[in-house]
Amino acid sequence: MMGIEWSGVSKRFGGVTVIPDLSLRIAPGEFVALLGPSGCGKSTLLRMLAGLETVSAGRISIGERDITALPPGQRGIAMVFQQYALYPHMSVRANMAFGLQNIALPAEEIERRVNAAAQMLELQTLLERRPAQLSGGQRQRVAIGRAVVKEPAAFLFDEPLSNLDAALRSRTRVELARLHKRLRATMLFVTHDQVEAMTLADRMVVMNQGRIEQVGPPMEVYNRPATRFVAGFVGSPAMNFIPVRRLPDAAAFAAVALPGEACVTTRVAAASLDAEGLFLGVRPESLTPNDAGPLAGSVEMIERLGDRSYLHVQLQDGLMVVADATRRAEPALGDTIHLDIDAARVHLFDSAGRAHHPS
Amino acid sequence: MNQSYATPSAGRYTGWLFVAPFLACYAVMLVWPLARGMWLSLNAVDLLSNIGSFVGLRNFVDLVQDEIAVRVFFNTLLFAAICTPMMIVVGLALALVLNRRGRTSAVLRGIFFGASVLSVTVVTLIWRLVLMPDSGLLANTLKGVGVSGVALLNSEWLALPTVAIVTLWWGVGFPMMLFLAALQQIPADVYEAAALDNTSRWRSFRHITLPAIRHIVVLVAITQVIGQLQVFGQVQLLTQGGPNHSTRSLVMFVFEAMFDQWAIGYAAAAAQVLFALLLGCVFLQQWIERRQDRSTA
Predict the structure, then answer these.
(1) I want to staple A323 with a disulfide (CB 3.0 to 4.6 A). Which of A186, A283, A287, B48 is the partner?
(2) How confident is the model at residue A4 (pLDDT cuts 50, 70, 90)?
(3) Which residue in B has a C-alpha nearest to residue A72's C-alpha?
(4) Half-sphere exposure of A203 (CA within 13 A, CB side)
(5) Domain co-membership, A157 together with A190
(6) Which of A81, A89, A103 sits opposite B193 (nearest CB)?
(7) B91 and B175 in contact (C-beta within 8 Å)?
(8) SS3 A133
(9) How confident is the model at residue B1, as a pLDDT?
């Protein structure tokens, strides 16, 4: 079990800088999810750690060992790819054993490790099959098995659940969580799916345009997003952003005027907040239908998810917001409704995108 | 429901209608000449009177007893045996080297494939200039290093391998392109997984690349064998079958028996031997393909 550290790492492709000067430290045994939209640099960061991309500047180390210039096979890491990347003409057993044969491990040791991994991942009956004879979920387990037998210093997962259907993805998430609990290995998981990141990770690293926006435990990132980008990216449906104007009063907490001039007194400290350019950040669960609510709009769509329902409401100034209508009487499409805001749970974002949270 | 469906029998006739033009051409241009050739091989035919007499397998017995025919048969097999491995090895080596992005690779791919579009007359003209015994490019180059009197096409031992090298130069572009297409089908992440598995270049080639392109290797091998068994143009233009029949090929033998000696039945019998060889190659390919499919299923 070893930690991983990127120190001042940057990556350029020709004249394009995709990761400018990034530093990050992962503790030994930690499960960290790199989360961000497509093209944010999360896979590049992972591939630089794996040695599949060169580092333009900076240093990457695993434990105390500088691995920046080492070839991939000598870094002591294992990677699970999005498309599994199994060797198609080899059996499951050969797929798992191949890497160990390359480092000339004794045959008995290879056999022991392959059998142990097969047992752990319930692959015993599939060992003589080829990848083409396996389902997507089984292939993914083989890919994980191939990583496990190497007993690496760290496991890297590059969007490993993207190709699985919803039910299998959910099951594999649980299996990965169990695997981490059992192995207590350092794991780095790249995903653009916040549900995967939130359910699996000890800490989340939210990235945008090659930079780290926020690092923290999932619930902290959800409850106290550092920036407007993080607030909008983490959480489904996304947080609502309503343009507001701060009211000039001397109270400790900021009071803001909503579109339509209704007022909300937040629990955000007023000090250091600008008067203009503010956005009120309201999660859908903090925005609920209530006849006495300060916002009014018409229902454009109802999203029924079984355990909960969301209303897509167009406010009078044209802004679309999503409200949580779970356990409430469902309005009809086109109805005009009022929405109440849970003022204790709203955030304010300034013009630079920085978050100001309720105290 | 207003929807109507073609009845199975109507569908069957419609299908036949679609393939009828091809079947007609196939029957007239291929099946009939083939059947006619088989019949001719069992006859002794006088071309002037166009009168034939049935001689059974006599033409085939004559072929087996004809020293030149036997030599020609082995020459042809030897030529295919020299050419085919060279085409595979050099074609694959070029494909591996040129399987990368960039202008240089694209230009080199074009150059290597370029020779394939030349006609056999141009190719042999170029190589005659290279191989001319006293004043050719090769002779002059060797003279520069103190070796003289090299006349590859005049040597009974070296003439056939030399024609094989000319054929390689001429035809390696196409196998190279097939190998390139196959190599580009291999997902990059499999090689990345191999790199993380500490795989050496040789093991990566042996255990990942080769199994992934084995279908194309078989295809190239069989098409090359079929092509090289029919070698004619470059032999005719470079050596005329000499020296001492050492480069005379089966097609050349058929051509000469037919158009020099007017022995139609005898030529047709030699052509049937070639046809049997080619048919054997096609069956071999299908057998190998079936085996590969079974092993990957």
Answers:
(1) A287
(2) very high
(3) B196
(4) 17
(5) yes
(6) A81
(7) yes
(8) helix
(9) 47
Q: A148 and A69, same structural domain?
A: yes
Output the pLDDT for position A174. 87
Q: In this complex, is the C-beta atom of B294 within 8 Å of any C-beta atom belonging to chain A?
A: no
pTM, two decimal places: 0.83
ipTM of the complex: 0.86
What is the predicted pLDDT for the residue at A275? 77
Q: How far apart are CA B242 and CA B159, in angstroms?
A: 8
Report percent pLDDT > 70 for chain B. 95
CA distance B92 to B178: 9
pLDDT tens digits for range A34-80: 999 998 999 999 999 999 999 999 999 998 899 999 999 999 999 99
Q: Which residues numbered 203-222 in B keep a CB inside 8 Å of some CB on A? A: 203, 207-208, 211-212
> Domain boundaries in chain B?
8-54, 60-296
Number of domains within chain A = 2
How far, in Å, CA of B160 to CA of A229, rounded? Answer: 73
φ/ψ region of B90 (left if φ > 0, alpha if ψ in -120 to 50, else beta) reads alpha
Domain range B60-296, CATH architecture: Orthogonal Bundle (1.10)
Taking contacts as CB-CB distances below 8 angstroms, the residues of chain A near B189 are 81-83, 85
Give yes or no: residues A104 and A206 share one domain: yes
Higher pLDDT, B103 or A272: B103
Do A251 and A280 sit in the same domain of this protein?
Answer: yes
Tokens of B254: 């058929």
Which among A200, A232, A264 is the end of a domain? A232
User: What was the pLDDT predicted at A43?
Assistant: 92
Could you tell me the residue range of the domain that residue A156 belongs to? Answer: 4-232
Q: What is the mean pLDDT of residues A190-198?
A: 90
Give the 3-state DSSP-derived string for A152-209, with helices as H, strands as E and coil as C: CCEEEEECCCCCCCHHHHHHHHHHHHHHHHHHCCEEEEEECCHHHHHHHCCEEEEEEC
**B55 contacts: CB under 8 Å, gap ≥ 6:** B42, B43, B44, B265
Residue type, A166: A
3-class secondary-structure state, position A27: coil
Task: Give A152 to chain B, closest Cα distance, Å.
Answer: 11
Write the CB contacts of A235 (distance below 8 Å, at least 6 apart in sequence): A194, A222, A283
Q: In a mutagenesis test of the A interface, which of B185, B186, B198, B293 is the best target, namely the one with the most A β-carbons within 10 Å?
A: B198
Structure confidence at residue B295 as a pLDDT band (50, 70, 90) = low
pLDDT of res. B296: 61
- Residue A339 has which token pair? 């929405």
